[in-house]
Design brief:
mainly alpha; 5 helices; about 110 residues
């Protein structure tokens, strides 16, 4: 379900996954399974999904829930990948977003 939608629909699906307050594990596994592919590699939709998660976290009013979701997803994907090369797309995305936000003047550093 999370792999097929385009950017606006994907954002809405990620927001829905983020707001499942009593089902945090189910939310995380929903995103993880959408990002996984066969042979211990990531699906091509992994980068846009993670980008949507990061964007939702940075604009979220409930940063604790989104942080937990993001942490669980990234941890599961790191353990799923066969090599560091397989995870490099997601790692680069996380580092790029962090660098961009840390250089902004009006950033809430607690969300980083």
């Amino acid at each position: 379900m999370l792999r097929r939608p385009k950017s606006i629909a994907r954002q809405a699906a990620v927001l829905m996954a983020q707001n499942l307050e009593s089902a945090e594990d189910a939310s995380a596994w929903m995103v993880v399974f959408a990002c996984k592919s066969v042979f211990q590699i990531l699906h091509t939709s992994a980068a846009p999904l993670i980008a949507s998660l990061i964007d939702c976290h940075l604009t979220s009013d409930t940063a604790n829930l989104s942080y937990t979701l993001l942490r669980r997803v990234l941890t599961a994907l790191i353990h799923h990948c066969n090599s560091s090369e397989q995870f490099s797309v997601v790692a680069s995305l996380v580092v790029d977003r962090f660098c961009t936000l840390s250089q902004a003047e009006d950033v809430n550093h607690q969300q980083l």
